[in-house]
């Protein structure tokens, strides 16, 4: 008789995006670009932002967006604040160096007994946070955790840099993880990898006068396709599955052409790949939960679905996970 193993199961997901819509056409007024040029190269039509180009800065924070997304996720899961044991926030746009964005969320949500901390893995952050939370649950250190990706990327952008400012949006997503014994549902595997030698291809300085996000787009594109494809295969193998077993790939929404190239590399049918970058742009650590919520709501992901997450961020950081819903 086999011993029952504790797994971390995703009970629900909740998201939040700012009310302000920044369409491609807005960039035409101050950049040498067009709606057609942006959408054909990135797949992005619009994005939600806290800060509009060349306007007064907004006051929405990563903690507040995370709180709103968390409330939705907790209500859907039927989880009360007192039941939350831990909060892990993935963000590269924290409200402060310290206290952490997670600590701010813990107070705002009333999760008085929860530990809370941030992690920095850029666009792979949600998978990194999911891995940490899953491991803590399976180790018996927590029973219920919030996995958060929340970003106010608009505050980091140089609006004169066409190579970056057209790509990004703001938003937050939260998954509720809970310990579950027996059955197939839960986080089946994760895979993490880093390569600090490529840090100069995508970065955001923390000091100095020019604290803008910088990226060498062509190089990032090539590495992203290779590394995300490889990470996807490793997570599937660790789960004891084959790619044919996967019902839905939910990749980090960085660029539609990157996602299409990964789809071709893995030889997956298009209907098994979730893409919603058109509406939100690249929201970094929030992009996977935003896409998961949409796929769940549309019925493309349901109970028993085998879902593969994969992301790549500055660092380079790479993360992938297979979850049975």
Could you characterize what this model shows?
With 325 residues, the chain is α/β, with parallel strands linked by helices. The protein has two domains: 6-181, Peroxisomal Thiolase, Chain A, domain 1 (3-Layer(aba) Sandwich); 186-324, Thiolase/Chalcone synthase (Peroxisomal Thiolase, Chain A, domain 1). Helix content is 32%, strand content 24%. It has ten helices and 13 strands. The strands form four sheets. A five-stranded mixed beta sheet has the order 1-7-6-4-5, sandwiched between helices. A four-stranded mixed beta sheet has the order 8-13-12-11, sandwiched between helices. A hairpin with a 3-residue loop joins strand 12 and strand 13. Helix 3 (62-77) packs across helix 4. The longest helix has 22 residues, at 217-238. The radius of gyration is 19 Å and the shape is globular.
Count of structural domains: 2
The helix/strand class is: alpha/beta
What would you report as the Rg, rounded to the nearest angstrom?
19 Å
| Strand order in the sheet with the most strands | 1-7-6-4-5
Describe the secondary-structure layout.
Layout: E1 6-16, E2 21-23, H1 24-27, H2 35-42, E3 46-48, H3 62-77, E4 86-90, H4 101-109, E5 115-119, H5 125-138, E6 144-151, H6 162-165, E7 171-181, E8 186-194, E9 202-203, E10 214-215, H7 217-238, E11 248-251, H8 256-266, H9 277-280, H10 287-298, E12 306-313, E13 317-324
Parallel strand pairs: 4-5, 4-6, 11-12
Antiparallel strand pairs: 1-7, 2-3, 6-7, 8-13, 9-10, 12-13
Helix pairs in contact: 3-4, 7-8
């Amino acid at each position: 008789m086999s011993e029952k193993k504790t797994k971390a199961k995703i009970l629900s997901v909740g998201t939040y995006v700012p009310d302000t819509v920044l369409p491609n056409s807005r960039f035409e007024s101050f950049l040498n670009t067009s709606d057609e040029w942006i959408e054909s190269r990135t797949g992005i039509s619009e994005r939600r932002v806290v800060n509009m180009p060349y306007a007064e800065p907004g006051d929405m924070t990563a903690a507040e967006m995370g709180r709103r997304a968390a409330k939705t996720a907790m209500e859907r899961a039927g989880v009360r604040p007192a039941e939350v044991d831990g909060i892990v926030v993935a963000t590269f746009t924290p409200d402060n160096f310290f206290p952490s964005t997670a600590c701010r969320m813990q107070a705002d949500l009333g999760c008085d007994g929860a530990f809370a901390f941030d992690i920095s893995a850029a666009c792979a952050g949600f998978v990194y946070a999911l891995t940490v939370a899953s491991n803590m649950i399976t180790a018996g250190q927590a029973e219920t955790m919030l996995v958060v990706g929340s970003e106010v990327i608009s505050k980091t952008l140089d609006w004169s840099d066409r190579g970056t400012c057209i790509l990004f949006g703001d938003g937050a997503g939260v998954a509720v993880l809970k310990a579950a014994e027996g059955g197939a549902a839960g986080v089946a595997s994760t895979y993490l990898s880093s390569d600090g030698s490529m840090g100069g291809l995508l970065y955001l300085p923390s000091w100095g006068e020019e604290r803008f996000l910088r990226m060498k787009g062509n190089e990032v594109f090539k590495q992203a396709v290779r590394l995300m494809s490889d990470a996807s295969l490793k997570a599937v193998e660790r789960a004891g599955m084959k790619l044919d077993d996967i019902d839905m790939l939910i990749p980090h929404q960085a660029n539609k052409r990157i996602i299409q190239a990964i789809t071709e590399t893995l030889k997956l049918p298009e209907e098994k790949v979730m893409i919603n970058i058109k509406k939100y742009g690249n929201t970094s650590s929030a992009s996977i939960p935003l896409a998961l919520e949409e796929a769940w709501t549309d019925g493309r992901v349901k109970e028993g679905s085998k879902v593969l997450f994969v992301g790549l961020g500055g660092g380079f950081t790479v993360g992938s996970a297979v979850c049975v819903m």
